[in-house]
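FORM 12-B: Structure-to-Sequence Request
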């Protein structure tokens, strides 16, 4: 490894990019744990000497067995696929071992090994980085130490913040903060260093939020058209069920926005089962009452297909035309041209589509309302692409709801309508965390098959990957055990074939569907009573909760089994939390506290946050302070310090204005 390769792999353009590759976590290296009475999965840190080292390789797995001698113990230890530690073990010197006790193996599983006299062993705080393949933790740490030395390249780094804000919050100097974050000597020094970068990230986020809000509020409608509220009320009364109070309030907020002079920029959020779809359809109906076209866009073919069926039923007696477009749908060129013509000439009132709606070929005569379902799977730029197609209001919908107070920070650029009540009551779904060897797994499958209920089996990957379950491997195993009952579904399968797989599952012709997260949204099978998620630790809590929403939709008892064979305490705690909680708001808040919220620009997904050190939940007060400071900066953008700060923001952020 050399420095040019380091920069290339990190995609770094300068020394500050390297310095801002912050640790993902900090590992305590302070001795802990009672080795005389170990508990399963308990973490231990111990100083000792390795001896009786034996290394073998079996079925592609490297296993090193040895013992650790300390002042108080003589312990059996195990290293799996970490043969690179062998040179340290053979030296026979005192080392620092980070371990987890395994009751099943009656041994201590070694997670990491450190020289007892190393800097991090002495301070007791070790930064842990997420690094591209090819960059070791030790090399990266040594390079950081070099550039942070007096006279090193980091001497020239300066704070991007206006000086008055550095003084207002008594923040550390930029280089000192970098040193405190990468080489902390004490917990207090680390806290002070992180505080600098948390505030920088929170202020940047707050500035972008206000820029987007300003952009949204600056969008004026060419004409504001009234909507006949009596017809909306009549449509609501004609429904075969009563709406909740939350649904009625949300519809009122949406309709009033649509009648206003500014373009609507609103988020509709609610847990699985709170009735977001009917609110969306009523919004499309209200839009049609002002004689304008609407589009409902969904991230997957399955969800879009489901919305299309619901829309056909909902608009059946209104005389309004509903069309469907999705890439991969078997339409002749003539049929597709006809749909595009009818859209251009205003003959189609409602279009339901996937990403196909963003195509330049799709033109509306008068688009008045764009609805994006599962909006967290789309980005700001994609929203803007829809808005460019007409003088259109925008309604975003998400089943990943955030508590109201937290939403004031996370969603501060948009108006929010929230559904908390359940029209048909909460589902009766029990969740259990199990190991793959637990007999309950196949007992539950056999029981479902015996009573004619359907089963979802989900894996994080399509193909095999070391240490990860794959949909293809699980499907082979399930198909062998339950012949004639299994199907495999993932995104690489052609859309027409996906449609047929879904039909067979929906009809009950096939009882077991092995899939990737393609089934997270849009698969509505009322008889599905069992969900099995392999390597459940690889998913965010909100994704797991969404997957759990695929079962128990008939109101009958259903079971979700989260399979986890690892020993990581944080992963186990996360899954245990989900097994106890079915409140989407609490789950989203927990998920945000652990994972972040995804990229603000929509370029990153699956919970990977552009916020590297700041967290919406844990650093809530910092965000609120940053909101006030951001407003002041934008009010006085011409002042020298403020102008300098805004110039230093990445171009893609300032282009949002």
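FORM 12-B RESPONSE
SEQUENCE OUT:
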């Amino acid at each position: 490894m050399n420095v040019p390769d380091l920069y290339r792999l990190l995609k770094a353009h300068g020394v500050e990019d390297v310095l801002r590759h912050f640790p993902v976590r900090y590992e305590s290296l302070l001795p802990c744990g009672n080795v005389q009475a170990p508990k399963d999965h308990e973490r231990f840190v111990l100083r000792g000497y390795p001896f009786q080292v034996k290394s073998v390789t079996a079925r592609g797995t490297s296993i090193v067995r040895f013992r650790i001698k300390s002042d108080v113990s003589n312990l059996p230890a195990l290293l799996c696929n970490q043969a690179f530690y062998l040179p340290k073990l053979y030296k026979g010197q005192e080392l620092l071992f980070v371990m987890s006790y395994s009751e099943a193996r009656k041994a201590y599983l070694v997670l990491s090994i450190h020289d007892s006299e190393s800097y991090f062993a002495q301070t007791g705080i070790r930064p842990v980085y997420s690094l591209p393949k090819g960059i070791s933790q030790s090399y990266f740490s040594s390079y950081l130490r070099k550039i942070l030395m007096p006279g090193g390249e980091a001497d020239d780094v300066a704070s991007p913040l206006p000086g008055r804000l550095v003084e207002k919050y008594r923040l550390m100097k930029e280089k000192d903060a970098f040193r405190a974050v990468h080489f902390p000597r004490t917990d207090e020094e680390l806290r002070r260093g992180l505080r600098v970068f948390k505030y920088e990230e929170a202020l940047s986020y707050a500035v972008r939020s206000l820029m987007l809000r300003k952009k949204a509020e600056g969008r004026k409608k060419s004409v504001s058209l009234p909507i006949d509220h009596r017809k909306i009320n009549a449509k609501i009364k004609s429904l075969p069920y009563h709406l909740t109070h939350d649904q009625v309030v949300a519809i009122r907020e949406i309709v009033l926005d649509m009648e206003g002079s500014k373009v609507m920029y609103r988020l509709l959020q609610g847990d699985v089962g709170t009735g977001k779809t009917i609110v969306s359809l009523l919004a499309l109906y209200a839009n049609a009452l002002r004689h304008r076209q609407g589009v409902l866009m969904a991230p997957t073919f399955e969800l879009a297909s489901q919305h299309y069926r619901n829309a056909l039923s909902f608009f059946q007696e209104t005389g309004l035309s509903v069309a469907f477009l999705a890439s991969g749908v078997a339409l002749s060129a003539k049929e597709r041209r006809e749909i595009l013509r009818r859209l251009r000439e205003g003959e189609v009132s409602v279009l339901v589509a996937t990403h196909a709606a963003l195509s330049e070929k799709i033109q509306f005569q008068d688009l008045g309302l764009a609805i994006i379902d599962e909006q967290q799977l789309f980005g700001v730029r994609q929203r803007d692409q829809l808005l460019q197609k007409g003088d259109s209001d925008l309604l975003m919908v998400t089943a990943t709801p955030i508590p109201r107070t937290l939403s004031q920070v996370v969603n501060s650029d948009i108006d929010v309508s929230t559904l908390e009540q359940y029209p048909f009551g909460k589902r009766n779904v029990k969740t259990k965390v199990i190991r793959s060897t637990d007999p309950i797994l196949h007992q539950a499958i056999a029981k479902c098959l015996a009573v004619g209920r359907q089963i979802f089996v989900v894996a994080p990957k399509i193909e095999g990957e070391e240490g990860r379950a794959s949909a293809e491997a699980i499907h082979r195993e399930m198909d062998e055990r339950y012949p004639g009952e299994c199907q495999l579904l993932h995104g690489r399968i052609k859309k027409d074939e996906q449609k047929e797989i879904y039909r067979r599952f929906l009809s009950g012709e096939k009882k077991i569907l092995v899939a990737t997260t393609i089934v997270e949204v849009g698969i509505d099978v009322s008889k599905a009573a069992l969900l099995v998620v392999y390597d459940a630790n690889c998913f965010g809590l909100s994704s797991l909760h969404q997957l759990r929403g695929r079962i128990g939709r008939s109101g009958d008892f259903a079971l979700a089994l989260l399979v986890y064979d690892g020993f990581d305490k944080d992963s186990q705690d996360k899954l245990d939390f989900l097994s106890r909680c079915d409140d989407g708001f609490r789950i989203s808040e927990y998920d945000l506290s652990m994972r972040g919220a995804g990229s603000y620009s929509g370029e990153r997904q699956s919970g990977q946050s552009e916020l590297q050190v700041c967290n919406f939940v844990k650093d809530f007060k910092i965000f609120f302070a940053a909101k006030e400071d951001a407003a002041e900066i934008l009010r006085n953008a011409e002042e020298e310090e403020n102008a300098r700060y805004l110039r230093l923001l990445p171009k893609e952020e300032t282009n949002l204005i």
